[in-house]
Amino acid sequence: MNRIESKAGKSTKASKAPAAVRVFAKPVSASAVVAMDGEETFDHPGAKASIQCAEMNGEWIAEFKFRFRSGLYQACTLPLTTSSERRASRAKAVGGAALRLLESLRSALAGDTLGKAQQAAADALEAWAQRLVDASIVDNKPLQGLRFLDVFAGIGGFHIALSDLGASCAGAIELDAEARKTYRANHAGSYPLHNDIRTASPSQFGQVDIVCGGFPCQSFSMAGDRAGFNDADKGALFFEIARLIGALSPSIAILENVKGLCSHDDGRTFETVLDTLTDLGYSVSTRVLNAGDFGLPQMRERLFFVCLHDRILANRATPYSFPRGSDASKIVADILGRSPPGSACRRPMTRLKPDPKGRWQKIEVVGLIDGKDCQGYRVASSLGKGFTLCANSGGVVGKTGLYRIGKIVRALTKHEAARMQGFPESFKPHASASFALKQFGNSVAIPVVGAVASTILPFLGPCPHK
Known about the structure:
Helix content is 24%, strand content 22%. It is built from nine helices and 18 strands. By secondary structure, the chain is of the alpha/beta class. Helix 1 runs antiparallel to helix 2 (116-138). The chain folds into three domains: 38-138; 147-329 and 445-459, Vaccinia Virus protein VP39 (Rossmann fold), CATH 3.40.50.150; 338-412, DNA Methylase, Chain A, domain 2, CATH 3.90.120.10. Strands 9-8-7-10-11-13-12 form a seven-stranded mixed beta sheet, sandwiched between helices. Strands 14-15-16-17-18 form a five-stranded mixed beta sheet, with no helix packed on it.
């Protein structure tokens, strides 16, 4: 470091020379460091953090710092420099830095056993950073300008999530005619809506940046036939998605399936899916996410695949990091409407336990219809979480499950089922309740898809278009 000493004045007989004033020049090593224009701060008894930001030539940069005040004293800081990632707005830059902070925090704490106070500090820091991430996407569309192909589209759960983030529909593929009617009734546009993925041609859809969809799960589900890839009409259709991804070469693919795929055929099915997508030129990140952690009252665990093409990877060590759900507060009672006349179940219920006194963050089974302990016969309290919606389950009301609501036991209505999956109130369900419940059971939890899709962009290089 260079040091400059300057005198404030000349010495004379009448006055004593002032003490030397030290002035430090900017060291060579810090030549790229940028002075901050603003800062977001976090101060907790167990941890401290900040995100500093600055404007550069009409764009914004931001970097994070955090440190723990006890335990193993984990810390990580990054300088704000001309090499920092540039974003179009302050909110986007801060949100991107907050997302990187979350990734660094989880890496720093991985494998550590934290005390109660340290865990509280870590949880508070994570919640603060997540709020900054969420705030960065409220008033902007992170997928603006990107086009998605919705495969195994159902009634458009993926469509709603991606459209809300600014993407536009390049096309959709759905075999079920009734589901296609519901899709068209709710999603305006001139995009092609094809019926059978086996006859779909890549040339139908033009430029595609994102391929998304939940491929048929019955062949992999613990509740299904477990035929796997041997089922030509269900499990084997995964390879049709792979065909389209290979031909269209989108930057991003977001796929969803049941958790049972991971264990099917002793894990070999899961390995085949991973290898197939990787061999197409994609990094593949997977995680099981529960809709009940993303602001929904439904306990619905699903396996998500985020595939990013090699040409746009920004981080080869951590190609993508999944969001963690931060809202497990919702219960079935929050989405209920008025009980329709004649909706009460008249069959006898064997009481297992009293109704809970307050709100529960799990499924509280309080009784069994006809004494049968299986899907479609279990009765849960509406003051807890809800059963996973199903398309074809058996029992008295296998699609939604039964709930103790006040003094009656009943199934969910089609509008309540829509809310269980996060569909907006403006959504128009199929006129037939039976068809509508099947379609919602086949759909995806929209807030989970939105959370995944909204956090992808910071992991991409400069341009997600191919």
